[in-house]
Queue: 3 jobs
Job 1
Amino acid sequence: MRIWDLHCHLSAVEGDTPGERIDTLLRYADRMGIERICVFMGTQWKHDPLPEDFRHQNDEVLTAIRGREDRAFGFVYLNPKYLQESLAELDRCVRDGPMVGVKLWVAQRCNTPAVEAIFARAGDLKAVVYQHTWLKIGGAPAYSGGGNLPGESTPQELAEVAIRHPNVRLICGHTGGDWEPGIRAIRACPHVSAGIGGSHPTRGIVEMAVRELGAERVIYGSDAGGRSYASQLAKVIGADISEPEKTLILGGNLQRLLRPILKQKGISL
Amino acid sequence: MKSLTRRNFLSIPLGAVALQFDGDALAEQVVPRASEEAVDVNVQLSRWSCRRVQGDETLGLVKQLRRYGVREAWAGSLDSLLHKDISGVNLRLADECRAHGDGMLLPFGAVNPTLPDWEEDLRRCHEELKMPGIRLHPNYHGYRLDEPVFERLLTLVEERNLILQLAVGMEDPRTQLPFLRVGAVDLEPLSRLLPHFPQVRIILLNVNALQSSSLELLEALTRTGQVYCEISWLEGLGGVGRLAKSISLSRILFGSYAPIFYFEAAWLKMQESPLTQQQIRGILRENAKRVIG
């Protein structure tokens, strides 16, 4: 069994430098049998980062993964509001650098026109795109998604994007947080996977995802250091699904999604 | 990095207590055999209103817990959140524990002090149903801890020497139904109240103690020696070990919030943190046994 963690951060992790922080992440990963981790975003986050901010955060990730290429992959963090700068950063970190994926957070909703070019370029580079999604209750009257930040995407919005980008490897971050409607929202999009990390270890999330999406579309990730590896691994280990399905979710699916870009970079698994 | 084989992943020891993993189990299915049997202070019986989960029938839950070597589990009833006939809820809880608990389940009845004659529910929990404590849901029942009724409840709990379990939350408030939005319980009033009730023992359930908004208060509350918290909602890398650096380890209890949460989440947290044999034993069992006496 090779466990790969889709979703790790350098924030909320002990250590003064990016290198110290990733070593902390890897030390705990060793305790939990996790072979590789994907890391995105730096030590200080902003909802709407300026180009110099996201470049700095990506530099921190590049620093962190350097010399640890056998254990960690980087995803480039972008802000679609600064499209040209984001495309240049994508080229710097993925096309010309060691990173293998894209992280889009809450600066702008994924179904706005500016993001189209990022998805397209990511597809050309065979990069995996992790799109943060949530469905927060809020608004007046309250509704699912009504509590989202102005630029915070929903799984439904990612599903819209998926139709226009059938060749991009898309991951629905947090499975929408409110995972029951989140799973339904992406059900009809076979090339969208559900990233199950970063929510309470509520029993049933993985069972429903496997039932509705198929195990090959469900991917383990933790959202460490804000979350623990333990609570998120438990979603898979404790799920009432078959062992081959667990193998896919804990690592097999992520390996399959990353294989084309790793091959392009000359990295063999 | 050492090479990762199925065997060494499955046999990572938790100190000398060694929550051993069965290497012959299903591929990477963690099946610990606890040489120290655990006391789980936070399990739930009956059904969550918005979801069916595996283990929401008592026999299934007991089977899950037995599989991990749980010796004793302190159980409340999910019915107590929304039902107004709390006496009936508590009666069913006690019956269910007796009939299907396989000697493992200890019932903790609910008391809703906004209901008429709630003191009689408390009396029945203690005298008739022989419960060691009660479980409160102030946010679902609609009162704050700075209201006089809570002070009255503390008086009676102290007189009867009952354990008081206080559920801080039950689900992520961001994912609640629009018509059923319930925020977390504000624990701040406990700081003022506890000195007046020096014999009261309070176990906080479902609180992420390492959250920056919670930690300072919890440090102060646990320093009183009267407040404990369990680990089911604890998050962050190595959370148990880090929490033990902030509050006395003797105040940390093992709780899973099963079956609403995967039991394995709490279990694996014990693996994630580097803990000594003594620390593991304390959290898994001995601290809880000291609380219950």
Job 2
Amino acid sequence: MKKIIFSLLLLVNGAMVFAAKPEYVQMMSGVLQKMKDAKSIEALEACANNFSRVAAVEKEEWLPNYYTAMCYILETSMLKDGKEIDAKLDKADALITQARDISNSDELLCLESWSKSTRIGVDPMTRGMKYGMESAQLLNRATIVNQNNPRIYYLQAMSAYFTPEKYGGGKVKALELLKKAQGLFETFKPSSEIMPNWGKEQNQAMIETVTKEMNGSTDDTATPNNRAPRK
Amino acid sequence: MKYTFLLLTWFVPFMVLADTKISGVVKDQKGETLIGVNVSLIGSYDGATSNVNGEYQFETSKTDSAVLKASYTGYSTQEIKVKLTGKDLKVDFTLKEKVTDLKAVVITAGAFEASDEKKGTVLKALDIVTTAGSNGDSYGALKTLPGTQQTNDREGLFVRGGTGAETQTFIDGTWVRNAFSASIPDLGARGRFNPFIFKGTVFSSGGYSALYGQALSSAVILESIDLPERSSANFNLSSVGLGASYQQLSKSKKSSWGIGYNYVNLTPYFALIKQNIQYKTAPTVHQVDLNYRVKTSKSGMLKFYGYLNLTNIDIQRSNITSLDYLDANKEYQDRYAIKNQNIYGNLSYKNYFKNDWKLNLGACVSYNHDDIATQILTQQNQLVTDSNFYSSSDVSIENQNNVATVKVVLDKGLPDLNAIRFGAEYIYNQDKTDLSLPVPINAINYQTDEHYKALFAEGDIYLTNNLAGKIGVRAEHSSVLNAFNLAPRASMAYKVNKAGQLSVAYGIFYQKPEQQYIFKNSQLGYMRADHYIVNYQFQPKDRILRAELYYKKYHDLIKTNSYGYTNAISNLGKGYAQGFEVFYRDKKTLKGIDFWISYSFIDTKREFLNYQKQVQPDFVATHTANFVFKKFWIKKMFGINGTYTFATGRPYYNPNLQEAENFMSEKTQPYHNFSISANYLRTIKKVFSVWVLSVNNPFGFKQVYGYNYAFRDLNQNNNYFSKPITPPAKQFIFLGVFLSWGIDRSQEAIDNNL
């Protein structure tokens, strides 16, 4: 019985992929390219607006909301005011919640986890415990859905990097997770060109940073000034 | 010819199919251009984002009529109908700014708020417990804020010229009758509740909301925590006692329950560190906490908190009047013993409904019983037979109060943050006192049964993001006074610029006289205070400056005469308080150090109780200043917190100066205190531990709160003997470890789901 449901689900899923309109895919990949090149808040905001215009039309697709939220999360790395960062993340979280009504993709759990861990940076002393835990739990849930998603381990590595060794974090642990993510990035194939496929380069860059730091200094943790993983 | 026409009509649609270019400028109502506005053609992907000059431009292949929409965070969305014909279109938008949480001004007059959830608060929930000198007492931390007095010798929080009884505490909206634990005269009292069970604290030093009443000076409004993040088991051991607790979060994460037990016994500590009073029984406390919290729906939350506390203290100290004999053989001892039982239960329910309705329901019951014995003993521990002391040589007092309250608040959210709030409150309050005196051998019993009812309504009015007001009114009736009252409240805030704002508050506040006066005279009426407050707050990133001016007028305070005759108790007392206060907090200037400075100046006089005339009361220091700093080394997981407090001397009554103009004319020496605490956080295996060492007054400043005088001049040398009121020891040292086994059930959830 389980198998039948499973294959039915696959079928429906597959059908939906096929059903995606070509202009939708074309529009999404166009904006994705712009998002990759975006270097300012204004550019990211333009992409977010563009994705949300698509979301307003394609009410059955979760990716437009996913990417809009991701733009907002990326924008926070260029903001300093905690209030503004929270406002962006509030918007991102609302979109992720909307998207989760459509899909239970592990990618949405990863993105939500990233959003939670970004909130820590606003006030590490009072937020570390609450959001750190929520963020970790979301990644744990993502492993249930798809344990081969490399972004899970990349995000875990980032939070380990900013967590002192005494609390189960540290650079050694971070590197271990980054290596695991590296292996999975090698084999990861998104099911379509517009599905989430980010993180490989950042993961590689982090491996180099951490390796260098471990060879160079005795410092065991990083300062939690900006916890958002770089894009 | 006919054909060409036909052909033409045939071709027209094709010509229209050419793309339409749409462009324009987006501005706000003031004419400022807006950057980043999302302009879209509804039903299509087409659209653009406005640039630095507010300009947008895009092309669409759509034809016919369509709707163009401009949306921007913090502004109302605007839609404009357009006709797409292939001809260039120019469409400008003027967006109206919405009143939003992020931008709107907050009324700050009179209120200090500690919260992690609300944006832009002065303090965080954690600040309450990490302030050195507070020793894990919420009220201790509040004493570092402006407006409070360093009355560590008395029970309660003394705010802006008010007594401790003029400050009342509310948990999840409902009034708490016995917010302080059992205490001994001249030794002060701690708050009953563990600060860790609260996620938010509002300390109002005046002008508080119409939702609360029966506090002349100040309201401390506490909000309890919701579901814990995970299950955990905790254990603590310290120089004052030990405790354990367990908290379980259900698998669905929809409900949790917890139980805790704490045992405090200061016998070992007092054996090690000498006290200047003799403890027959050092403070001994058994305390049990229970909680149950459940998410009843997506937006509903039901919380129960239960508390049981048994406290026992028995002390002896020199009887001052007997010292006036100047005869070592006749030095007597005052014994004061208290057994306190307290039970408290609080049930609260909160839910959000359709159309922005919100319901807050609170119910609470409490029972408090004090068994107090005061005796005067000879050096052989016998009751004195000396006729000068006999009448008060053996007094026992039994105080009991039973309280049940229900409070309902309905809140209707309107557009642009406007809201109306209204509700009702009912409190049943039974008080009993049984007194037994040696001479004449008799017993006196008092009892009152009070039914207190209140109705209240309040409106939040946001005119713009920069201008907001709150208007409220509260109507109360007390059965024991058999009197109504109507208390209006109003406040307003105006944002001067991005970081600065000005607030004002006004209100009338009523309070019933304390129980002991109502017992003796049932004809008393409400006491009343009128508050006027002006506040300026400047809050750039990581810094905050607050300055506040206030004037408070007291009417109908309780007046007794020095002998406490029944018929002499009246509402004829009066007084005023005025002053200014400054608070500055800075997390930026000194790298990694978070500090705040508070300063209060007060000018107050009152004629109340047995005061002979209107004077500065003996619980008020004219100038008070606090310096609080916090430093935490994240890499080392180690932190140091310090608090330095200064207050000028407090007036006291010296009966040796008989003339009326000398009443309360003497002042104590200035008060200095320094507290330091260090904490170290460490995870050992799976156990999270916090190690705390705190020392109060390490430099041993001499602290004098006032003087106790002999009741009579027994040796008739025209000099009443006196003794300073001091803390029982110069230093207080706390050393403790808190261990926590966090049981993260997410792994279990994973296993169960596979």
Job 3
Amino acid sequence: MTSKWLDAYHDPVASLYTFTQCLTLADIQADGDWKLIIADLGTGSYDMKLKVYKNTNLMSEHAIIDLPTGVVNFYMDTLEPRTPAIAVASGPYIYIYKNLRPYFKFTLPPLSINQIEQELWEQAKHDNINVFVLRDALEGLRSDGQLLTVRSLKFLQLESTDLEAFANLHKHAPLKRQTVITCLDTLKKSLADEDAISCLVVGTENKSIYILDPEAFTVLTTVDLPSIPVFISVNGLYDVEYRLVVSCRNGCIYTLKRGSKEGSKYCIELNSQPVGMERINKTIYVGCMDETLQCYSSKGKKLWTIKLPTSITTMKTLDYSPRQLKTLLVALSNNEIHMYKDKYLVDVIKTEGVVTGLQFGRFGREDGTLVMTTRGGGLFVKILKRSAKFEEKDALAGPPISQNQKINIPKKTKLFVDQTLRERQNAVAMHRTFQRDLYLLRLNTARQYVKALDNSMNPISSDPTEPLKLSAQIQGIGPTFKLTVNLQNTSLSQPTSNLIITFNYDDKLYSFRNKFIEAPMLVPGLNYAFETFIDCLNEKGVSDNVKVYVLKSGRSVPIITGVISMPVSEAVAVA
Amino acid sequence: MGLFDMLARWLGVKKKEANVLVVGLDNSGKTTILNQLKPDDTKAHDIVPTVGFNVEKFATKSLSFTAFDMSGQGRYRNLWEHYYRECHGVIFVVDSSDKLRMVVAKDELDQLLQHPDVKNRRIPILFFANKMDMREAVSSVKCSSLMELELIRDKPWHICASNAMTGEGLHEGVEWLTDQIKDLVDKKK
């Protein structure tokens, strides 16, 4: 199988530290040459940068003050040329860049501050209480489970020698409690066009989701969730109807509709923490920490689960409109990216390193571009071949597709329901009856077998001194038949002699021309055939069984017995 | 063919005709190159992305070319193969500043070379490493190694760096192609 991807760019030492949420592709200069925008987490504590790649070159870099948690591109106005803005979520702020320049900084609304905490700091400001009293009071508040401001939390962490200086430095500034953005996405406002104005959808650490107006930067809608949102999937239009699918840190996925104020109504409870969530059409794909890929309908019904070979690092939808291809890319920790179309694995991409950031879309002038960043800091770009075809069939061995086809099952009848009910109620008794009958059947079989052995009624001899095999066949259509008896000595070395073949039959029905055959000495292994003709005496179409006995002279019990059921004879021609 | 044409050909006044196929990825400059080769009075002022294909005519000293300017957009690339049979030469235009899509150009070239209408013919292939004026552009040597042109052994090929906006490098390439096609036509006789 030749690869379906072309290796367009490969830089294993790009020193990027980033994730899928911090990658986006956008035509930020409106020149048809799409750029790759990466929010680089730097070392994880400093040196955070927003990097823009044009083709394979780094085009510009902007420092970011705090750790970025999401990057999206969106159109915020209707000006020509249509240049999209870049939104970078970082801490409680969203930084908007336009034309590669900082444009606006949006701060999420501050949260309410605990009254006692506020008063304590007020007292401290006027030096009415000393820092140790302040610390004890704050400590008490915290152990009561109150949510404190960052300033108080930091204050509580300090050594007692540093308290005074910290309090003096900060006590005059007004107290603020802010949240942190956890996830960011866009939602088209009133038109579904590619370049229509979009709202920003922001999930925060205080279990809320805000939808922001892109022109005035005001909060349009706030939704409170039971837990902290981690992944967001948005579709629809803000002014018409929209759906937010939010996966939260408590392992639940909530669906929010336009107008709903809280999202506990439609809830999918996962049995493991989600590490990625994507939505394709009406199905939700969730990658979980227990190495499974699960698929749910939009109503929350579980459709299927696939066990993956190793843990998932990230997930992304591949939406390739020229070919109407919509698949799911799942990056795994064994240096592979699996591509799923519905539940079928259609392609496996091997990568150099564990992929942590994935983005598919238009890059440069190419529509089907896959951008990957790895844990080691590498940047890789692959392009989907024009000739690539993805067949909807499992690349791995597995159950055939027909197994998954729905069978048209008729409706349950009353009889079926009654029967099911009866079976359910009397399960134990039925099982016992069945077992008893089974034992009786076995017993009966065993008895018949012993009887057959005793009477040598079977066509293979059980006598170890005379191992013989008998087979007989009838030829002809009547009234005269030819009976061929085949005898074989099945012993390895011992010949058998003094054997006689004779028959038992109803002499009113049949007449044997040769009723008694003396067999010669039987050499081991060879097949001996003995023939006789039988005339049928009855013209009424009656038939009977004929028995073949193989006897040894001097013994009354036959060695073996064969039973032949005679065919119905043709009528004798009227002579 | 009229009597006059026959007479003209016999006298060597009328030039021989050749069909060339111009292919390459979108935005590589195929239409711009052909526009530059056309006589001044028929030049177009602004170039728009080609839809389907255009037929252009231009002439050198000894040959008159009919060029099939194919669209390079992904959805039109499957049209290329229908013109392989009739062509006497191929001009393959590469955007030497688009390093990302060099592999795509290579993939398309491989598909061209593997096509039954091309595979067993000694069609000359002229490569233009276009947009040599761009800052990010790679040299024609680098371009030929990225495209693995050295693996083409059964066909004459030539690569030259070009700038379709100014016409730099175009005539050198077209002269090479003219020589090759003339050789081919002469050998056939």
